[in-house]
Amino acid sequence: MKTLIEPFKIKMVEAIRQTSVQERRQILEKAHYNAFKIKAEDILIDFLTDSGTGAMSDRQWSAMMMGDESYAGSRSFFKFEAIIKKITGYAHVIPTHQGRAAERILFSIMVKPGQIVPNNTHFDTTRANIEYNQAAAIDLAVPEAMHPALIHPFKGNLDLEKLKDLLEQRHRNIPLGMLTITNNSGGGQPVSMANIRETAQLLKKYEIPFFLDACRFAENAYFIKQREKGYDQKSVLEIAQEIFSYADGCTMSGKKDGMANIGGFLAVNDGRLAAQARNLLILTEGFPSYGGLAGRDLAALAVGLEEVLHEDYLKYRLRTAEYMGEQLLAVGIQIIQPTGGHAVYLDAKSFYPHIPSHHYPGQALVCELYKKGGVRGVEIGSVMFGKKNPETGNEIPAAMELVRLAFPRRTYTQSHFDYAIEAIIETYHERESAKGMRIIWEAPFLRHFTAKFSPAG
Ligand code: F0G
């Protein structure tokens, strides 16, 4: 059969509130043209993030009913610990309320002021947690990652030559090295097994610990199965086990490939590091057998981490982004190619060539998509990453002007995607009349969450 169906059927539904274009115009104006300020009930298709927004299975919900809420030694913790040990092989599993809590704990133990941490591309919270410890987060993605239209099977790879140079010059100052799988900030692109292995070998030469930011490890493992020689006959579990075997530990947001609404963990081999992490955990997160989560959350994650490795799920998951990408490319809409695991990234610079960076083409596109179809995406461009030049006061634009449409797991059907595709294509047909945006108010940090805009000119 040619048609790939969603590998699940629907047992519970949540109504979507229909809105008219006229209503959405008013909602947008009231939200100061910032999609973060729109109420979720005013959104038809929400592609703001794939984080914590997916649908849980009947098996997860029933496991939640069996959640053990004991403060210490909960049965749900041991189930959670067992599946993580099975997948990663790491000796110590420390639950946290989400990924960034694992990052905070790891970096506050390992990273000292003035040090540097290399990664393919640090996710915002990873970078922020490193910088909070007065260290530098360095991105070493391969040059192919910078070219949206360039096709390459593993655009998430780290540039090994650059890492080699950095290690030769600065190895005493590098407390750990990281790889983000898949590389979210670089378009949800996978990292190859060869690249993971070689990164590990380079770091090992200098006895530098190696950690994975493993949020989307299952999607990455399935890309390896599809694209890397020698892996097509291996199970996704075996591939994941090999990935984790090269590293000393990982941070994880269970809100992505944990298939749950909340949760995360830090897993490590080093017993001393684990003991230090548990001490910090008790201080701010909770006792080591719950780490700020309810027993039912641990139970949902234990099942989610097993379900995410099902190959019919992963096949459908990666095909979803590919399907949307194909339809958009067919009418000439530029995206990051090839499509990654969890999202499609629209190239707003080529969508709106008449809107200059300082009028934020990505922000304009987010607003037009909402107006046209009630579809919410997120700007990843000069609003998020533009920097003020301290001398001139002018803004230095971001390297790319993108709009990310991230897909909640198991939540929307193909007709939802067809609807969103139609909204994007209709918006594209009307591209010449679109106007840019001006920032009329901004916060000193992470301005994209709260900035107020008005249409420019
Ligand atoms: N690392 C990566 C690669 C991520 O994508 C995220 C979250 C985190 C760490 C932090 O995890 O949210 O559980 O604390 N990414 C979400 C997103 C927020 O929309 O891409 P968290």
Task: Describe what this molecule looks like in 3D.
- With 457 residues, the chain is an alpha/beta fold.
- The protein has two domains: 21-50 and 311-455, Aspartate Aminotransferase, domain 1 (Alpha-Beta Complex); 58-307, Aspartate Aminotransferase, domain 2, CATH 3.40.640.
- 40% of the residues lie in helices and 13% in strands.
- The chain is built from 16 helices and 16 strands.
- The strands form six sheets. It has a five-stranded mixed beta sheet, sandwiched between helices. Strands 9-14-11 form a three-stranded antiparallel beta sheet. A two-stranded parallel sheet has the order 1-10.
- A hairpin with a 6-residue loop joins strand 12 and strand 13.
- Helix 8 crosses helix 9 (236-245).
- The mean pLDDT is 96.
- The chain binds ligand F0G.
- Ligand F0G binds next to helix 4 and helix 5.
Q: Estimate the helix proportion, in percent.
A: 25-40%
Low-confidence stretches: none
Mean pLDDT: 96
Task: Give the bound compounds.
Answer: ligand F0G
Task: Note the gap between the termini.
Answer: 52 Å
Helix and strand content put the structural class at alpha/beta
Under the CATH scheme, the architecture of the largest domain is 3-Layer(aba) Sandwich
Beta-strand content estimate: 5-15%
Radius of gyration: 22 Å
Question: Which fold name fills CATH's third level, the topology of the largest domain?
Answer: Aspartate Aminotransferase, domain 2
Task: Assign an overall shape.
Answer: globular
Let me know the largest β-sheet: 5 strands, mixed
Instruction: Give the C-level CATH assignment of the largest domain.
Output: Alpha Beta
Strand order of the biggest β-sheet: 2-8-7-6-5
Number of alpha- plus pi-helical segments: 16
Classified in CATH, the superfamily of the largest domain is: Type I PLP-dependent aspartate aminotransferase-like (Major domain)
What's the number of domains? 2
Number of DSSP E strands: 16
